[in-house]
Write a structure and sequence with these properties.
With 315 residues, this protein is of the alpha+beta class. The chain folds into 2 domains: 74 residues, Phosphorylase Kinase, domain 1, CATH 3.30.200.20; 205 residues, Transferase(Phosphotransferase) domain 1 (Transferase(Phosphotransferase), domain 1, Orthogonal Bundle). The protein contains 10 helices and 9 strands. Strands 1-2-3-5-4 form a 5-stranded antiparallel β-sheet, covered by helices on one side. A two-stranded antiparallel ribbon has the order 6-9. Strands 7-8 form a two-stranded antiparallel ribbon. A hairpin with a 5-residue loop joins strand 7 and strand 8. Helix 8 runs antiparallel to helix 9 and helix 9 packs across helix 10. It is globular and about 60 Å long. InterPro entries: CDPK_Ser/Thr_kinases, Kinase-like_dom_sf, Prot_kinase_dom, Ser/Thr_kinase_AS. One of its GO terms (molecular function) is protein serine/threonine kinase activity. This is Protein kinase domain-containing protein. CIPK serine-threonine protein kinases interact with CBL proteins. Binding of a CBL protein to the regulatory NAF domain of CIPK protein lead to the activation of the kinase in a calcium-dependent manner.
Amino acid sequence: MLLFSCFPTIKNTKVKKAFDVKKNIEQDYVLGAEIAEGSCGLVRKCRSKANGGEFACKTLCKSYKYVRREIDIMQYLSGHPSVVTLYAVYEDSDSFHLVMELCSGGSLFDRFQEKLPLTEHQAAVILKELVVAIKYCHDMGIVHRDIKPRNVLLTSSGKIKLADFGISARITPGQRLSSKTGTPAYLAPEVLAGKYSEKVDIWSAGVIFHALLVGYEPFDGYTTTEVLEALRTKTNLNFDGGIWESVISKPARDLIKRMLTRDVSSRLTADEVLRHLWDFLESESKHRNSERGCDSCEASLKNSEELTFANLLFV
């Protein structure tokens, strides 16, 4: 029997020395083409003058009120394989420049915008990689607060990396946050009430899982106001009829119900989502082996344990 050991608990004991903030990024890097742009800054490719390595440079204006917190949290989380790595920080009179790992595979949004819905197996593997990153953040006392496809990046090999900690916050066990922040379509309903925990990230991951499975998000609208109104009024999501009953398996329906429940005390933790996914992938492997007449499932189960999103890119 394989033990559930692929998602280790990471205790919040990590201490890192602060980066030495340097003054002139162009002494060390050649700034290149723009990759992305947001309301508070932009991201460009950059190349190291020392070794020719390619990186991403995120430039944030100093007037952005959360800039120092974003740098602090990125440094604190940096080094985990499921989180974008921060390598260096530069400062000039107007901006901070964050030299980060380059995720040249684009975002989850870019990759699958035209390919939804996915198979349950593909959706489960993507969710597993995403929730591994979320679990790490929560174990480290960080709530992301803006989990969405554009903030889930891919390396050139297809490895998922969680990015953009601009509105993330530190949180202690039992603490409740009150800032009403996030992206409306992925916002947990308790955020609107101004009292919430790290479980808002599980809700957001559930919205992504919903889109991966059936091709659309549960709360939609043409404007932000319409999306928020749907979130307030569409209190009971139905996963027992239509496409959910005819196409989606009972284990997948059970998982998404427990991620998208408005009862926060009943909503799964990151650990519980991963255990549910492990059971799902294990059951699926046994079913496939049974259909093939296999005498032993051990090798196939090991493959399920090690399966990553990168393996699915060309399926």
